[in-house]
Amino acid sequence: MTELNKTYDPATVERRWYEFWQDHGYFHADENQPGARFCVVIPPPNVTGSLTMGHVLNNALQDILIRYQRMNGKVTLWMPGTDHAGIATQNVVEKALAKEGLDRHTLGREQFLERVWGWKEKYGSTILLQLRRLGASCDWRRERFTMDPSLSRAVREVFVRLYEKGLIYKGHRIIHWCVRCQSALSDEEAITTEGGENGSLWHIRYPADDGGPGVVVATTRPETMLGDTGVAVHPTDARYATLLGRNVILPLMNRPIPVIPDDAVDPAFGTGAVKVTPAHDANDFDIGQRHRLEPLCIMTTDGRINDNGGAYRGLDRFEARKRIVADLEAQGLLVKTEPYRVPVRRCERCDTIIEPYLSDQWFVRMEPLAKPAIEAIKSGRLRFYPERWVGVYLHWMTNIRDWCISRQLWWGHRIPVWYCDDCPKLTVAREDPTHCAYCGSAKIHQDDDVLDTWFSSWLWPFSTMGWLDETPTLRRFYPTDTLITAADIIFFWVARMVMAGYEFMGECPFRDVFFTSIVRDMQGRKMSKSLGNSPDPLQVIDTYGADALRFTIVSAAPLGEDVRFADDRAEFGRNFANKIWNAARFCMMNMEAVGSRQTAVGSGDRAMLDLPERWILSRLQAVTDEVRASLDAYRFNEAAMTLYRFIWGEFCDWFVELSKLSLYGDDPAAKQRTRSVLLHTLEQILRLLHPFMPFVTEEIWQALPLPPTTDSIMVAPYPVADDALRDPAADAAVTRMIDIVRAIRNIRAELGIAPTTAVTARIAPAAGADGVAVFEPYLKTLARVTSIDVLAASERPPDEPSAVVPDVGEVFVPLRGAVDPAEVRKRLENEFKKVSKDLQSVDAKLGRPDFVAKAPADVVEKERARAAALAERSATLTRHLETLRRGS
RNA sequence: GGUCGCAUAGCUCAGAUGGUUAGAGCGCCUGCCUCACAUGCAGGAGGUCCGUGGUUCGAGUCCACGUGCGACCACCA
Predict the structure, then answer these.
(1) Is the dihedral of CA A68, A459, A364, A172 positive or negative?
(2) Main-chain phi, psi angles of A652, to 5 degrees
């Protein structure tokens, strides 16, 4: 094998193995290969995206699952691709155009789309290239894009089918309108600010038409009064009974509008009278419908007052608000202004305040689609991890509202509807028509709008597999097994995929959904560009390595909880990779003549093995079970930490040290057995760890002096526990031995005896704790003792420093013969004096009220800690000095 | 307003179905460049498991209430 460097250098290793894997076709899933299969589809990142820590966690988990199942021998498909991300991408390209002094309208639709495609070709695969750096073992030969011809065909088919089924319709109603994006949005894209935003509640008098006082209405959006066509009060509200059926005068516009009774009004809120603006509020629209009040639109699509707004025409909506309030005040009609938390919705993409706007849009009737999706989760066909998302999902599903799918954008799937100039009928078609399907007129034109991005994403699990053709891929890999995604797209994507899966494939698109943690900064804030708290994963990979980043984030992300991350946390994973690297170096250095894989460890050899070897093999079986169980239950962090503790805390800290006894000894047979166990355990560890840290495990595995059974660790079988190698007796024995070693080391440290100074030890066994004699060779090495004597049960040397070890007895470390007890005693006495003096002065300091009151809190805390440490040391010294004094 | 989650060492977090002495990493203190590793080794300090009450032989773990954070949903103008 080649010489390994002292520290692991990920940069030189990672690219090499990634290319190796790809060149060997290991990422490719062959649908013709028989056997069990496993499939995951990637949540397609936006083409505009670049890798964030959220992607890192999400895709590391998918890769772990994929690599685990691939090693389990399954035909494994991880389907990659990107989403065209309608609004997001259009925004990016429009911004680029703006820099050239252009906008999409001057370019025109066709040229603009050419520009977007050009942009997509150039930058659209950035994020997928970045995923490769992370080690993602996606089947890149199958890369898909939501606007690929075959996926577009699926979108078109779905639209037509739903239209023919009566589940897609054009509706005239209030929708969420973004005045900046100039488009309708779905309910999910309209984000409510938590707890509302600062605003006011204006109380405005609408005088009666006979000059009477009329009513006072309360509103948070006074500018909409320009479009008021009524005032509503509760039918039983005695205060307004005399006004019902009469008119009041709309101020500023001087229009008479009726006072009408409606149950939707809460008499207890505000004044109990509500201005009704059917064109600019969803509730008011409903009230208007019930009372035949005409909606009066007073705003343009870019948020300015239109011709219906009289004197306010042309003003921006918020400017109009100010002017209207001022004018009302001037006319003495503004009764009251009170500060108020106003519920506001903002555009998910650009944060602009959304305007409820009356318009014609395309909708999907969702209720029929929701039925099987509700049944799926109730019956257990579909499972969520963690389970608590079931409630959120069901609440949304059972209260589902129709989905507004039309967007007034250019980038996306054009709505396949044609209008006829000669008849009122619509032509909805799978292929672009040349004539009206009803009257045959050639004067037809296509709907200008495109579909919501999610209208293609919801088909992702089968559109990527070639649907609507019944492809071999689809037959082999649909439905998929697990979906790993962030919970913030549970409605946007997960819920709708379930509905689409049942509607078009007749089957749930996946069995399990795992919701990942949200990655936050160390203060618990969401990562965002504006806060600058979002580490660049590529930078982290460059500094610490992809394995380090993956392992760090995965081990820190518990099921169902958020995870906090800052780039230097990746030191955790880097140090671990380096630890394994060096354990491997140690193995290599001692493997000059090792046997083949066949002579590695089998259960038949067990009786021949020494205690440490039986122990580590036994522990390896337990760990194998634990890791598998954790992975099968999607407890990724638990699996990672189990491996971390085993590899570092048991294999490296104890087994490697114990193995030196034999490796540096002169029994060739024992040496050979130890080598064999060492190599076997390391090899199994690498396999267990490979899904988490693919690069470093491959690099080491390839260097092992074993004839490989496969060309890569990534296609080697994932370990299965061998019951014959379990050894509870060895487990218990080594645990006791470790306790003895620790006790002796502790005594040495407390007495200040250097680790290089040889001492002797004596053990007084507790009742039932016999057999400590077999530990002798190991204790000699690990605790640096020259001899271990077992004392008679009743013997307790009073003058020898000792420690009680549970399940073992009392361990004594006699000084005579090793060091001069008088010298130790003198040293401890001197230290005791110094400690006492220090303790006194610290105590004095802490006793001064002005210090405690005036010094910074952390300084006081530090002094307190120092006092505690000194007191502790003082007690230890006292104890040992008492023992030593008995000896002289 | 409704639903849900969280609260454990200075910090970030583990602790399935309740069961001996509550763990890890980072940080801190002491001593070490010991022939795999200073990205390391050895030893150590540090916790009224948010509060109150309850169930139980036994509660960090289950129940109720409270407090403090956080998330999601909802047409209160």
Answers:
(1) positive
(2) -75, -50
Q: Is the CB of A395 under 7 A from strand B?
A: yes
Q: Which two tokens stand for residue A231?
A: 């005032």
- Distance set, CA A633 to CA A56, A74, A144, A367 (Å): 21, 18, 29, 33
**A371-402 confidence digits (pLDDT tens):** 999 999 999 999 998 888 998 999 999 999 99
* H or E element that contains A804: strand A802-805
Which residue do the tokens 């019951």 mark?
A: A723
A386/B8 CA-to-C1' distance in Å: 21
Measured in whole angstroms, how far is the alpha carbon of residue A748 from the centre of its chain? 47
Nearest nucleotide by C1' position to the A6 CA atom:
B37
Residue A167: Cβ within 10 Å count: 17
pLDDT in tens, A192-249: 887 778 888 999 999 998 888 889 999 999 999 999 999 999 998 898 888 888 999 9
Q: Which two tokens stand for residue A160?
A: 């037509």
For the entire predicted model, the pTM comes to 0.92
For A77, A184, A219, A454, the CA distances from A177, given in Å and listed in that order, are 40, 5, 20, 17
**Nucleic acid strand B within 7 Å of A571 CB:** yes
Residues in CB range of A326: below 8 A, 6 or more apart: none
Helical spans, DSSP H, in A241-356: 282-291, 317-330
Distance separating alpha carbons of residues A631 and A421, to the nearest angstrom: 61
Place of tokens 């002797």: A760
Distances (CA, A) of A427 to A170, A417, A452, A456, A872: 13, 6, 20, 21, 87
The ipTM, to two decimals, is 0.94
**Coil, helix or strand at residue A292:** coil
